[in-house]
Write a structure and sequence with these properties.
By secondary structure, the chain is an alpha+beta fold. Helix content is about 30%, strand content about 20%. The chain has two helices and four strands; from the N terminus they run αββαββ. A hairpin with an 8-residue loop joins β3 and β4.
């Protein structure tokens, strides 16, 4: 009885050690292979790839450059989209980061413009999540 229990335990343990990495890696039920560089092999998450645009608006649908954006985001030219890649963050963390950045920029401004951050998600796309995300904050009036 003890020998039967031990062999059953070993078989189940080996099955879990082989099946779980494949299930995590092949993204069931879609059977797409997940790959991320600089990660721990089979247990990695796919990288988030997205385009982000930061801009100001005086009127609806009129994109204007944010003055002195370089002090907030190094190397970015507003309002052009910038492609980003995140390996260790979730979508929610990325959205919260840009929401707090736009809120901070809007608080420091002395105008009545609306400051906007838009994210267009490129990868990984899932059926239950939207492709576009947008956040806006109203600037200070300077009073």
């Amino acid at each position: 009885m003890k020998r039967h229990f031990t062999s059953s335990f070993i078989i189940i343990w080996l099955a879990v050690q082989i099946i779980v990495p494949f299930v995590r890696r092949l993204d069931f039920p879609h059977f797409r292979y997940r790959y991320a560089t600089f990660s721990w092999a089979m247990y990695s998450k796919p990288a988030l790839v997205y385009d982000v645009s930061l801009f100001a608006q005086n009127k609806p649908r009129q994109m204007e450059a944010i003055p002195n954006i370089g002090q907030f985001v190094r190397g970015y030219e507003s309002p052009q989209p910038m492609q980003m890649r995140e390996y260790y963050l979730t979508r929610k963390q990325v959205e919260e980061r840009f929401a707090s950045l736009i809120t901070y920029i809007a608080r420091r401004s002395n105008d009545n413009r609306t400051y906007v951050a838009t994210i267009h998600w490129t990868s990984p796309l899932q059926t239950n999540q939207s492709i576009q995300w947008e956040f806006s904050a109203l600037g200070n009036s300077g009073l």
